Amino acid sequence: MTLKTDIDADATTIFLDATDGFAVSITHKPGGSGGTAIDAITGDERITREFGDNGDTVEVTREIIIDGSVTLTYEDRFTIDSVNYGISEIPVPVHGLRSIQISRKRKRKTGLPSGNSIEI
User: Fold this and answer.
1) Rounded Cα distance, 26 and 97, in Å
2) Where are the domains of the chain?
3) Which of 62, 66, 111, 113 pairs with 1 at a CA distance of 20 to 30 A?
4) pLDDT band, residue 19 (cuts 50/70/90)
5) Measured CA angle at 111 (ends 105, 115), to 5 deg
6) Which 3 state secondary structure label does DSSP give 68?
7) 3-111 sits in which CATH class?
8) Beta strands in 1-43 (DSSP E)
9) Is 29 helix (H, G, I), strand (E, B) or coil?
10) CB contact at 8 A, 68 and 19
């Protein structure tokens, strides 16, 4: 084994250990359906709000770190705490881990009662 393969293996087994490490279990839905539990490190949500003439759009993004060997497409979805996210960015894995940007959007049309929104 090389130092690089040792680092890659350690990063995955240490950081992505939901029992004793830093990770939590989330659901990965390849192609947007089905679902497999995987371990991931999840970042806090960041909220961006855009105001428009016919309503507001709220985009919620967060970073997750998963095993770099997981195959991903932009059609995949992730569920964290019963909330569904799509993939915004799929970078190349580094040291056996892949840091992904995921997001979800909601649009509230002007004139609708508070709380009435649609997911886009």
Assistant:
1) 16
2) 3-111
3) 66
4) low
5) 50
6) coil
7) mainly beta
8) 24-29, 36-42
9) strand
10) no
pLDDT confidence band for 98 (50 / 70 / 90): very high
Give CA–CA dist 3/75, Å, rounded. Answer: 35
Amino acid present at 62: R
**pLDDT score, position 119:** 53
Alpha-carbon span 92 to 35, nearest angstrom: 23
pTM: 0.74
Region of residue 37 (left: phi > 0; alpha: psi -120 to 50; beta: else): beta
- Residue recorded with tokens 């997981």: 70
Residues 69-107: b if buried by 16+ CB within 10 A, e if exposed: eeeeeeebbbebeeeebebeeeeebeebbbbbbbbbbeb
